[in-house]
Task: structure prediction
Amino acid sequence: MSAVPVRRGPGASPPVEARGETRVVLSLLVGTAALGAVFGLAAALPDLGWWDAWTLAYFTGLRACRAGDGVRTFTNAAPYLAALLAGTSVATAVVKGRRAEGVGVLVLLALALLLVQALKFLFERNRPGLPPWVDAADQSFPSGHVANAAICVAAALRLGPPFGGPTLRRIATPLALTFVLAVGWSRLWLERHWLTDVAAGLLLG
Result:
C-alpha cells in the first residue's frame, strides 16, 4: 500500500529536516563572513593605528585607579570560566539524549580554538604592553582570551542553559554577552591587546 503524501497548507511550518539544513547553511554563511571580516580587519591594521593608539592612551589613564589585581584575576580566570560553561552545556546535552548535537558543537568548538591559534601565528602582531623578547609577545592578533570566551559562550547558548527553561535563556544571553565584553575590556585595560585584536576576537566568536 503506497503512502499518501501529506499536503501542507500555506501557513504550515517546514519539516524539521529542512529547518536543520537551513540553519547549517546560515551558520556556514555567517562563519565565512566573520572570517572574511577578520582578514579584512587584518589588512586594514596599518590604517587603524590611530584607533589602537587612542584606545591604548585611554586605558593607560584608567589604570590610575587601584583595580589592577581584580582585573588581572578576572582576565586570567575567564578562559576557565568560559570552558566550564561550554563543557557543562555539552555534557548536559549528551545526558539529555542530544549526543550528536553536543558532540558536534564540541568538535566545532575545538576547530574554532585551533583557528584562533593559527591566526596568531599567521599575523605575528606585537602586543602593546610587552617588549618583543617576552614569550607570546608577537601573538596579539586576534585576542585569544576574547575569542575563546566568545566561542565558548556561543556554544553554550547554542545548546541552551544546562537547567531551566526559556526564561533562563532570556536572562543568560545578556549575561553571557556582558561576560565576553568584560573579557575584552580587561585585555585592553591590562595593555595585552589592541582594540582591533579584541574586535577580531569578537568576530571569530
In short: The first helix runs from residue 16 to 43. The chain has seven helices and no strands. The helical segments are 16-43, 49-62, 68-95, 99-123, 144-159, 166-189, 195-204.
